[in-house]
Structure formats: structure tokens, C-alpha cells
Task: structure prediction
Amino acid sequence: MRHKKLLGLALGEKSLLVAEVIAGEKAEVRRVGEFVYPEGLAPQQAVETEGSAQALGKALAEFLKQGDFTVRQAVVGIPARWLLVKPKEVPVSAVSTMESMLRLGAETEFSSELKDLVFDYCDGTETEKTKSVLLVATQRSHVQWAEQLCEAAGLTAVAVTPQALALGRATGEAVKRQILVLMASSGGSELTVQDGPAPTAVRHMRSLEPLAPFVGDLRRTLALLPSTEDPRDIVLWGTAASEAAALGQQLGVRVRGGTLAMLGVEDSTGAANGDGLKQAAVIALALSTMSERGPAVDFLNSRLAPPPERRIPRWAYAAAAAVVLAIGTSIYAYQYMQQRQHTLDQLTSRYNGITNAVHDATIFVGKVSIAKEWHADRPRYLAALRDLTVAVPLDNQTYATNLSIKEITALVNGVKDPDVGKLQCQLDGRTGDQQLPAALTDRLKSNKAFSDVQLGGTSYIPRLRALEFTMYFKYDPDKAAP
Result:
């Protein structure tokens, strides 16, 4: 449902930002405030502590009362450090079909060590055959903690969504092209990559101050993002215009401060609007939930939540009773069907027991097959990493961007692959030396542990003055040097 009045709550590292927004022809910001957490109740430390949400909620209720905040429905924005993000491409299909595919594959996209996650997704760009989406997850305990916080403060939570995605989409809709949206705060920064209103990446970063370490961190992050032909501008929120100019000079790109005019709201609070209002994220939270399409991601009302169980309608009971009465006309037939059903139940139970046992055994064999090769005296993957590290020159301009190592275990046409036990590897990297890929190929071939060494391809990136390369090879741990 579309809301006319909303209270935005943005959870930060050291404080919680609050904004009261009223819908209209042009949304109006009535009140804003900053609630500094009491000692020991910051969300990052308190989320796993029992009773912390209630204690913080009571303090928040007193803050809202003193600030004359009257709206009781709230949208909670959680920080990017609580998120797990995975870009995916799915075939173009009906929304229900796409959501079913994402729901089935969501559990396998993230580490098996992270249990009890809540999933949702952001719509992205679409071609004739595929559609790009951003699969987003967070731990269920974070969502429950946000709900408990609102309940203790006398509020009703209508949505729980990442604040970076809300601000990124609002900024992308205003700029209408590919940009980087950077939200700075004293506790850390959050970066989103926008292709118009569609997000393609979300990152949590260090604080903007001091500037030098932040610039280095940002350069590394930008180097790992997908490159485009168009230069990407940065819209900076939450800091002064002078800092935006200083950041732009350090990076060599255009950096401009965000303003409330980008969000399309009227400010009745008297806050400054020219240097990137730090309440922009919390205002964007309220605006995203007021729109008819709702927030980009809503963990409270996830589109990837398991469908509710359907209750059996009354007419189904009546139909079942009619069938039972029809069968009951023949005592002999009824007794015969009962006996057959009993036999079927026994066979079904036995079959299910065997199926579960086979499934569990298959999982166990897979784990043992992997684990049996990991001994203290046979560091298989470590040996491959060691020899590859020795082969790559330490020239301060060559580095790996991706390394994939998989053990060869499959059968080929029912016949055991002669390379079973070897490691199949793919190395992606960048270098400033154009002769390096060919030289590195020769160096790997000179080591008897490497085989089938192939240079997959190279491409020059003018913007980075670097050469990207891909190499494929196999590694035999049994031939590794001690």
C-alpha cells in the first residue's frame, strides 16, 4: 500500500538519522534529526545482544517525543555492511517464473556457513534474452532486530531496506545515466554503482577522513568494477562541496555534491541544501516506500519469501466426504482399498527412507572425497599457489584479479579422466608490461607440475594503462617440488 506519511530511520555506525516526510504533489520534509546511540547500544555491537533493541527503542521513543515527530509508520534503512550482494543474469521470463528461479538458487549463491538469510532482488537492465538482477541478502536476525526496535519505540515498521540502494536509485533517476553514488559519514561510506535507476553493485567502504587512505581504497574498488566506455561521475552525499572538489582532484574524475533538488522534495526544516545534505539517505528511504512500486529491496516483505501454505477450502472437505461415501457403498471394496493403501504407505515410507539415506550418503561421499586430499603432508592447493606466486614476477605492476582452482573429478563418457586428481586453474590478471603474458606462459611451462598452459587472451585498457590477460592451465600436485 502507498503511504502518505512516513518516518525514515537510517541506522548508522554512531547515530540514527530520522526524517518525517509527507507525500503530496511534491514530497515535503517536515522534520529531521540525529539520534546519537547511548553507550553500548550501537546496532553493530547490540544486534546480537538480547534486549538491546528494546533498550534502544525506548531511548528512541523519548528522542522522537522531544523532537515532535508524530508519524508512527516507519521504514528502516540498514547499512551496506549487513548485506550480501550477488549480481545474476536470468532468462527473460514472466516475473513469477523469474522469482521462482531466484528463490530456488538463492541459498546456493552465498556461503553455506551463513544460515537463516532473508533474500530479495533489484531489477536491472534487460536485453532480448537475459535480464540482469542484483540478488541481495541479510541475516534474518538483523531484520527482526529492526522490527523490535520500532516496536519498542512505538512505531510500526512497514519496510526494512538498504539505505544505500534507496539513495542510489533516487539519484540515478535524477541523473538518468551511469554514475557512482557515494554516501559519506563519520562511521564509514557506502558506494553504489547505478545504471540510471538500476543498481549494479553495492560496497561498504572506510570513512572519507582521512582522505588519502580513502582515495586508495576507492581506486582499488573502481578498478575491480566492470569498465565502461563512458567516464563515470561521482555524486557525493553527506559532505561539503570543498571535500567533493578535493576528492575529484585526487581521483581525476568529476565529483559533485548531491542536493535535495535531485530527490524532488521540499525542505521545511531549514537545513542546508547546497553541500550534500547528510539526511539525504533517510529522506530517500521514505520516498522509496511512498512510491507505488515500493523500495528496490524490502526484506520485511520480500518477493523471494516462500509462498504461504494454502488452506484447504470448505468445498474440498465436502467433495472428499462425497468420495468417501461413494466408496463406502461396497464394504468389500472399501476393505480392499484400505489394505492396498496400507501396503502403499509402507512402500512409500520405505522408499522415502532409502531416498533420504542415498541423498545423505551422496553428500557425505562428496565431502569425504574433497576432504581426503587435504593432509598436512599434501598441501595441494597451497602448492599450486606457491608455484604460481614464484612464477609471477614481483614488478609492482602485475597482479591477479581472479584465480579459480577446481579439482578434476568428473568422468568422461563413463571412463575415468586421466587428469583426475589434477587441479584445473584459471588466472585473470592485469599488468603494465605487454610482454609479461607470453613470458609468464613460458615460465609456467618450464615447471613440470604445470601442463596444458594456454594464454586465453589479452585486452588493453587505456583508462588504466594496463593489459588484462587470462590464462588456463592444469597443475599436478604429485609433481610439485617439496
Summary: Residues 106 and 119 are 7 Å apart (CA to CA). DSSP finds 13 helices and 20 strands in the chain. Confidence is low (pLDDT under 50) at residues 272-276.
